[in-house]
TrEMBL record:
Residues 187-240 form the HAMP domain. SUPFAM superfamilies: ATPase domain of HSP90 chaperone/DNA topoisomerase II/histidine kinase (SSF55874), Homodimeric domain of signal transducing histidine kinase (SSF47384). The chain crosses the membrane at residues 21-41, 162-184. This is histidine kinase.
Length: 464
């Protein structure tokens, strides 16, 4: 099955298609050449036989003009070499009696015509059962006798018939060779394309040191590899600059925010009552909100650029969900929300456990904020050999299908709960973590109501 799949992939390559087109074009041209050559060879044989017969009649023209057939009969009896040369003669008396020649040639009499002389072209079988194909001339003598001169072209046609077959066999070998060369070229091209795809996939997965090999051939793949390597170098340069900017922002902004928060706390200790204290507490909450938002933005950037610490390994899916439920159980009890876990025991998941825990925590917090009050929230994981699905299902109002693509963008807050805490960065972070694992975040409807936020991870790609 693997070889069949690989052959199908090779057959879909442009090199093999071009080779197949050229091979089939050669085959069509060859078939046309075979038919044309067969026609021309047959025509040449007939022209040659016509010249032989005409020469024979020209040599006997003096005898054919006599008032009696006897001089012609005497000449035919004296010259028996014609039979050995393939020329067959038949002389019939006016009453139809065979004066010279083989009697089976009288079967050609149905092809004869009266004067003027006419050509004869017919196939027949002699008394011994041997097939013949005669071509020649017949004419009527002055004494009403008939004279026939024909040549058996069947042996000659049989000998030259092998020529189109030889040409066809050679062209068939040429076709097979062309397809074989096309398949070989496709294998080489597919190998280079697979190298490019594997390198780019590794780069997307976070290995920023990967580069395409550049050979000295200078073909189109080498030129493409050089351009891709330059592009990857430029991306690394831009990502390093972004990292420097992020680090600079963290150094320049986080420290002043921390000082501001500390100063507000110091002021709040001296003004514990009155309108001033309330304003200071609101300022403290706003400063904490800005700090959390800033940390979330930096975290998303780290995940998207694969600069965050991550270690992919196999771990227990039910253990992940159980730890998540235990961590948020006090919040669920305060919100009168029932947490349920749906997972098969001993199922293994491939990925970074800490990042997936953070992603699931963001989805669970969204379910607490936007789900049904005093409702039910389900944590689930369904794992097959091809993919793993884990996520959170609530009983809230959900997200309309036409707004789901916007829900995963930064600072997008949908629905009627604009007063709910948050910055619109939770789903963006979950989507970035899913993409880091080679998967995606999918938002679906839950039956009969609610939202089902599912992280879909390809297990095969993850375990490679």
């Amino acid at each position: 099955m693997r070889w069949a799949k690989r052959l199908r992939r090779l057959a879909d390559t442009s090199n093999f298609r071009h080779a197949a087109i050229v091979a089939w074009a050669i085959l069509l041209i060859a078939l046309g050449a075979m038919l044309l050559s067969s026609y021309l060879i047959d025509k040449l044989i007939r022209e040659h036989v016509r010249d032989i017969v005409s020469m024979n009649l020209h040599n006997q023209s003096a005898l054919l003009g006599q008032h009696s057939h006897l001089p012609l009969l005497t000449s035919l009896l004296a010259n028996t070499r014609q039979e050995r040369d393939g020329i067959h003669s038949l002389l019939l008396a006016p009453d139809g009696e065979v004066l010279f020649g083989a009697a089976y040639l009288k079967q050609l009499q149905s092809c004869w015509q009266r004067c003027p002389p006419s050509e004869v072209d017919a196939a027949l079988v002699d008394s011994a059962g041997e097939a013949h194909h005669f071509q020649g001339m017949q004419l009527s003598l002055p004494d009403q006798s008939y004279y026939l001169v024909v040549y058996d072209i069947l042996p000659m046609q049989t000998r030259v018939k092998v020529l189109p077959l030889v040409i066809g066999g050679g062209l068939f070998l040429l076709l097979i060779t062309s397809l074989g060369l096309g398949l070989y070229a496709s294998m080489l091209s597919m190998r280079r394309v697979d190298d490019i795809r594997q390198t780019l996939r590794g780069y997307i997965a976070g290995n920023r040191r990967l580069r395409l090999p550049e050979a000295a051939h200078g073909d189109e793949f080498d030129l493409l590899a050089a351009d891709i390597n330059r592009m990857l170098d430029q991306l690394n340069h831009l990502m390093d600059e972004l990292k420097d900017v992020s680090s600079h922002m963290a150094h320049e902004l986080r420290t002043p925010l921390t000082r501001l928060h500390q100063q507000l706390e110091n002021v709040a200790e001296h003004a514990r009552f009155g309108p001033t204290a309330d304003a200071i507490h609101r300022a403290l909450e706003e400063a904490e909100r800005i700090q959390r938002m800033f940390k979330a933005i930096l975290r998303i950037g780290e995940v998207e650029s694969a600069r965050c610490a991550h270690a992919f390994a196999w771990f227990s899916a039910d253990k992940l969900l159980q730890e998540l439920a235990d961590y948020y159980q006090p919040l669920a009890e305060c919100s009168q929300v029932t947490l349920e876990i749906s997972v098969q025991p001993a199922q293994q998941l491939y990925g970074d456990q800490a990042l997936l825990f953070q992603a699931m925590a963001n989805l669970l917090e969204n379910a607490f904020k936007y789900g049904k009050p005093a409702g039910q929230i389900q944590l689930f994981a369904h794992i097959t050999q091809q993919e793993a699905q884990l996520g959170v299902a609530d009983e809230g109002s959900g997200i309309p299908p036409h707004l789901r693509s916007d829900a995963t963008r930064r600072f997008r807050r949908l629905g009627s709960r604009e007063d709910a805490p948050g910055h619109g960065l939770g789903l963006a972070l979950v989507s970035a973590i899913a993409r880091l694992h080679g998967g995606a975040l999918q938002l679906r409807d839950r039956k009969p109501c609610g939202l089902l936020a599912c992280i879909v991870l390809p297990q095969a790609a993850g375990s490679a």
